[in-house]
Amino acid sequence: MANHTIGMWMYQNSGGEAIQKTLIEKLKEHDIETIPNLNLRDAIGMNGEIRCHDTIMENLDLFFSYNAGEQTLYQVYLYEMLNYTIPTVNTYESFELSEDKFKTAHLLNRHGINTADYELCHKDDILLLKDTLKAWNGKMIYKPTDGWGGMGLLKIENESALDMLTSFLKKTDIREFYVERFIKYDNTDFRIDIVDGEFVSCYGRKAPKDDWKTNVTSGGQVILREANDLVVDIAKKAAKVTGLDIAGVDLIYDQEREEYVVLEVNGIPAFATPEQEMMGLEFNAKKIQLIVDLIARKVKQG
Questions:
Q1: Sheet harboring 188-195: ordered strands across?
Q2: Which residue, of 44, 71, 89, is where some domain finishes?
Q3: Scanning 99, 134, 188, 207, which has its CA 20 to 30 A from the CA of 42?
Q4: pLDDT reported for residue 149
Q5: Cα–Cα distance for residue pair 139/156, rounded to 1 Å
């Protein structure tokens, strides 16, 4: 009989089902039983308990949530509540931080980690934004603070484009306007995976021709690339600062300032898909083992 039981919500597409199966098998070697597919969308909170299907979530020794594509506000709300009563991976605090681009960039800057120059202001501060656009040589990127996968990113290259965007935003319930200086780079990035403070893998994404966004969901292409000591060191520091046990740190090289900058820290970085493994991305086994060891340690710490 297993000494401990954890809950898991793992994405199932792009090889996720096989990853989940391997995680469950390896956790059994640590006397840890897993209840999979605990989608908090199906959960109900009542009388001091959050029940998902037939499982009382607070009775689990840990909850492992790893599904970026299907997160809803309801699920995240219950995730936050669970974090008060049982260990979660990642913790809700670190997950919430990594979901917010301004909070992430601001904290990284406070700890001396380079990011793109950024500015957050009230959506009515149009004159301030216009001054910033001029200071940044007429190019900036508008980003929703809570977007992912390149969704909602807009490149602004003149005041008329800025006017059009601010006019639209005034009609929404968005309070703030978050922008970053557009960085001149070679249209490729680094994705560095870190688990429990350890380097797992490095690969890159390349933007489509005549585009600047490297995100795969925006048409970017995964490419093989070697890590160097500097990007690995930066990624480890970024993961530590954000508090993420599992992190995917995205960096690009600023050709004008000749330095690496962190663009984003992802709290649910994907495993390599079967197709990506065929092209040479062979880090899944190492990542799985590090996650299993991480969960086992946290469970046994209580």
A1: 221-224, 198-206, 188-195, 246-254, 259-266
A2: 89
A3: 99
A4: 56
A5: 6
Domain that holds residue 121: 117-181
Please enumerate in sequence order all residues whose Cβ is within 8 A of that of 80, keeping only pairs 6 or more positions apart, or say none.
92, 96
CA dist 199 → 83, 92, 109, 287, 295 (Å): 26, 22, 22, 9, 17
Helix (H, G, I), strand (E, B), or coil: what is residue 211? coil
Of 167, 125, 169, give the one whose Cα is nearest residue 143: 169
The crossing angle, in degrees rounded to 10, of helices 126-135 and 159-169 is 150
Residues 135-179: tens digit of each pLDDT:
999 999 998 888 665 567 888 998 888 888 888 777 777 788 899
DSSP state of 250: E
State the greatest distance between any 2 C-alpha atoms of the chain, in Å, as a whole number.
Answer: 67
pLDDT tens sequence across 182-224: 999 999 999 999 999 999 999 999 998 878 888 776 678 899 9
DSSP 185: -
Does residue 113 surpass a pLDDT of 90?
yes
**Phi, psi (degrees; rounded to nearest 5) at 276:** -70, -35
Q: What is the pLDDT of residue 145?
A: 83
Domain count, the chain: 3
User: What span, in angstroms and rounded, lies between the C-alpha atoms of 181 and 100?
Assistant: 17
Do 160 and 215 have their domain in common? no
Cα–Cα distance for residue pair 180/176, rounded to 1 Å: 13
Amino acid at 181: R
State mean pLDDT over 259-267: 96
pLDDT at 216: 74
